[in-house]
Structure to design on (662 residues):
């Protein structure tokens, strides 16, 4: 692979992970793995300056702001901090700092690195008037109503300054995070990967009441400005913030040299799990402000600060079994079961091996000694098999031919690594499919979580998601931990679901490869479940973003008599998914449209609906393939990028005129 092709591949991969992390809050890799990719890209770019790109992930700070919230321009911009992963790298950074200042020793301030979400807070005359996320560092999202729910942040402080701007970290305490995940699992939803992403998702809730239920917390770590006050050091800034009653990092200090900082790092590496919140390292800053200014910053990060990231935590254990888990779509996943070990302050007893190709690649066998690691994520993974300790009788695991639950033959679809059970009557699939059907993003039946579904299955009250509409309050009330009131409420929720939107119904019935967006596109195109069931492959492929493989999955689903019968049964029981018929145009057919800035006549969601109505596709990022950028007031970096790429820029009024709205 040439340097150019590797650089292009890394940039593409990193940009995808940035979107997963910052926009969708669904990261696929740990912070450590991301930083290693970024480090490799930086090395290649340094060797090949002729391949420089101003939009490379190495010069970006974070993700783009979420479209649903008004943009806020940061002055000065919110920079990220470079990371080091060893004491040797930390000492190299210390050497660079000392050379830059021409000094033999530098005083540092160091504190715990909270695993949360950066926030900018503006107080005017002692009152909180604005809170904004970091976004891309230049432009963030105004999330003031949501931040007002953070009880550790004062809404009013002593009116000592007309204008005070500070920055800090929003996070979720460990106990609150555990409680949140328990509630999600009870409701049949997927647990959140880590507290950081839970906090990010909470800040972007549209209803502040839901945010309040998340019990967010905060620490403040930077004094940006306080009228015309000039502070001499980071520690002096903390003194001011403390006097104002702002929440500060509980463990911090000033250290005479890097050796003292190393002792602080070692102390908290040992005791990090004694805290009530997650940390992933220690932040070290040159303490004196004049020295910070002399050192300056790169395009990405200040030279006077660095984050020492604790290495991913790992433990050695022994595999005692490889269990097979059957998911909602029938995918069979091998899971390594091993002797309990403590990693990251929690007991770990298993780790997913993802699929049988991955199991064969790692060659995990029962009896093997393995190394299990848990970096920034909650989910552990097998990172190494100690083959030198392998018992002589340990045999390679052979992928099964039949489902471990129902014993029906397994099937591998073309171009897929997953092996699936295609028996829709398989008990494992039934449990997962009913839970999915009632989940928040599908039919939104509150109270139909996995545990309750399992108890109904065990009692013989239901057999599939269609049968939930045959339940009686009397039968449900007989279940453990259920009474008449709870049963009546669940039946009320089930009744309400009968007229949920068609897109939710399509998503809920669990067609393989059909997510929320595809379900919406199918609902818009066919407008009834009957029309979708009878659609031909050619008609399906005509739907935007539906390719041959997705079309094949849809036709396969409806070719199974039992699936069609379930739908007919629900119709007989009064299930009638609703769909508002929208008159559609083609003025934006095939166009990708990005909206940025503050709009006056319509909300972002309303503009996005208009784009879709005219055959266009709303997008959150500007590229050479963008058709139009709709720019409201205070448009920031997206507007600059659109101009640099010669993307046509429209005002809100110009856009509305284009689609025929005066």
């Amino acid at each position: 692979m040439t340097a150019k092709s590797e650089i292009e591949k890394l940039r593409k991969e990193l940009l995808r992970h940035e979107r997963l992390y910052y926009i969708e809050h669904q990261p696929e890799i740990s912070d450590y793995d991301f930083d290693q990719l970024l480090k490799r890209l930086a090395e290649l770019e340094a060797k090949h300056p002729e391949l420089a790109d101003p939009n490379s992930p190495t010069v970006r700070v974070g993700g783009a702001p979420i479209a649903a919230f008004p943009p806020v321009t940061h002055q000065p911009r919110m920079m990220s901090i470079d990371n080091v992963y060893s004491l040797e790298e930390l000492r190299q950074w210390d050497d660079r700092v000392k050379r830059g200042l021409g000094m033999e020793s530098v005083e540092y301030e160091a504190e715990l690195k909270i695993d949360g979400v950066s926030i900018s807070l503006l107080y005017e005359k002692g009152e909180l008037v604005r809170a904004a996320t970091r976004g891309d560092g230049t432009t963030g999202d105004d999330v003031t109503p949501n931040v007002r729910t953070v009880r550790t942040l004062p809404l009013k402080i002593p009116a000592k300054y007309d204008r005070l701007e500070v920055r800090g970290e929003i996070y979720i305490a460990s106990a609150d995070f555990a409680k949140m995940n328990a509630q999600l699992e009870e409701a049949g939803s997927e647990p959140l990967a880590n507290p950081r992403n839970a906090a990010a998702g909470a800040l972007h809730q549209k209803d502040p009441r839901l945010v309040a239920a998340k019990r967010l917390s905060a620490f403040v770590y930077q004094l940006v400005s306080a009228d015309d006050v000039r502070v001499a050091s980071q520690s002096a800034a903390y003194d001011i913030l403390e006097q104002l009653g702002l929440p500060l990092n509980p463990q911090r200090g000033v250290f005479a040299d890097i050796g003292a900082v190393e002792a602080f790092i070692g102390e908290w590496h040992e005791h990090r799990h004694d805290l009530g919140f997650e940390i992933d390292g220690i932040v070290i800053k040159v303490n004196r402000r004049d020295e910070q200014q002399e050192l300056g910053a790169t395009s990405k990060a200040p030279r006077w600060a660095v984050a020492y990231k604790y290495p991913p935590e790992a433990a050695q254990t022994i595999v005692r079994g490889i269990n097979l888990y059957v998911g909602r779509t029938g995918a069979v996943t091998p899971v390594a079961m091993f002797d309990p070990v403590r990693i990251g302050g929690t007991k770990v007893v298993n780790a997913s091996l993802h699929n049988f190709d991955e199991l064969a690649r790692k060659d995990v066998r029962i009896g093997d000694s393995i190394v299990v690691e848990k970096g920034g994520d909650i989910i552990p993974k097998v990172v190494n098999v100690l083959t030198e300790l392998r018992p002589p009788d340990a045999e390679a695991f052979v992928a099964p031919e039949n489902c471990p639950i129902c014993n029906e033959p397994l099937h591998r679809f073309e171009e897929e690594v997953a092996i699936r059970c295609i028996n829709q009557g398989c008990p494992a699939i039934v449990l997962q499919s009913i839970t999915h059907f009632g989940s928040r993003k599908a039919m939104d039946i509150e109270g139909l979580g996995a545990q309750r579904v399992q108890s109904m299955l065990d009692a013989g009250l239901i057999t599939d998601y269609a049968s939930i509409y045959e339940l009686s309050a009397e039968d449900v009330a007989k279940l453990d931990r259920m009474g008449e009131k709870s049963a009546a409420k669940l039946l009320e929720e089930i009744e309400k679901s009968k007229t949920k939107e068609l897109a939710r119904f399509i998503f809920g019935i669990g067609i393989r490869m059909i997510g929320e967006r595809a379900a919406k596109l199918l609902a818009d195109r066919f407008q009834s479940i009957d029309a979708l069931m009878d659609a031909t492959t050619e008609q399906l492929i005509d739907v935007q973003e539906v390719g041959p493989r997705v079309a094949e999955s849809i036709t396969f689903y409806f070719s199974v008599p039992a699936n069609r019968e379930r739908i007919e049964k629900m119709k007989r029981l009064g299930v009638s998914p609703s769909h508002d018929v929208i008159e559609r145009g083609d003025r934006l057919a095939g166009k990708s449209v990005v909206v940025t800035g503050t709009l006056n006549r319509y909300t972002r969601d309303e503009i996005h609906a208009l784009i879709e109505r005219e055959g266009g596709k709303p997008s959150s990022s500007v590229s050479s393939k963008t058709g139009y950028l709709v720019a409201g007031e205070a448009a920031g970096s997206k507007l600059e990028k659109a101009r640099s790429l010669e993307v046509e820029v429209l005002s809100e009024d110009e856009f509305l005129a284009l689609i025929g709205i005066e």
